[in-house]
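In response to reviewer comment 3 from the previous cycle, which asked for concrete evidence that the modeling workflow produces usable outputs, we include below a single protein chain processed end to end. The sequence was submitted unchanged, and the resulting structure tokens are shown without manual editing.
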Amino acid sequence: MFPVDIHAHTVASTHAYSTVHDYLAVAKLAGVQLFAITDHGPAMADAPHFWHFVNMRVIPQLVDGVGILRGIEANIQNIDGEIDFYGEYLSQLDIVLAGLHEPVFAPATSAVHTEAMLNCIESGKVDVITHPGNPKYPVDQTAIVQAAAKYNVALEINNSSFLHSRKGSESNCLALAKLAKQHDAPLVMGSDSHVAFTLGGFAKSLSIIDAAGYPRERLLNCQPTRLLKFLRERGHRTLSELLTFFEPEAEQ
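The workflow returned the following structure tokens.
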């Protein structure tokens, strides 16, 4: 139903279990037309080296009609919202996700989490905030959603949060989705796959989004061109091949 997945980890993050080839095979079977490889940023203990992300340019953006976005799930490192990938290297990636992760940023107070996330959003360096409904990192949800709307940064409704990790995320994510509808903030679903079999799996996320009344057609997953144009608006200049390939969808 939703042919785009923005959040998947490969064996380069050693607590994940699939290769790029594995994801391509599942994408074809599941009808996923575009997905992002977003391994954990270098500050994570078992993350790939910085060079892994620098060299992602060797991965083709199109393979047998399936689009691949070359990205990162960076770590928000401090209250200033700084992430563990930087400079001109950021412009070479197709998509930049960032989130709070315990091995890098120890849970503190809501005020600290909120300031860190707001500074990250306002930095202009990050396209998507991952799992902002994590109950271990409570935030001022209204402030986060308003900033996301102002700076055109997407908030992720993370399907894995309802299955394998971040237990207790449902109520936070429902509240975030309701606020996103109210303030016209962009939402995107991510499978947060650590094995290829879950690529494109959004059932739990979609139930939260529907319960919040957030229109499905506003989700960045609804078609490849929707996400690609969002990323282009945010300054990514690496997407011409993908936009050319998927552009006919916008005319249907």
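The mean pLDDT is 96. We consider this sufficient to address the reviewer's concern, and the full set will be provided in the supplementary archive.
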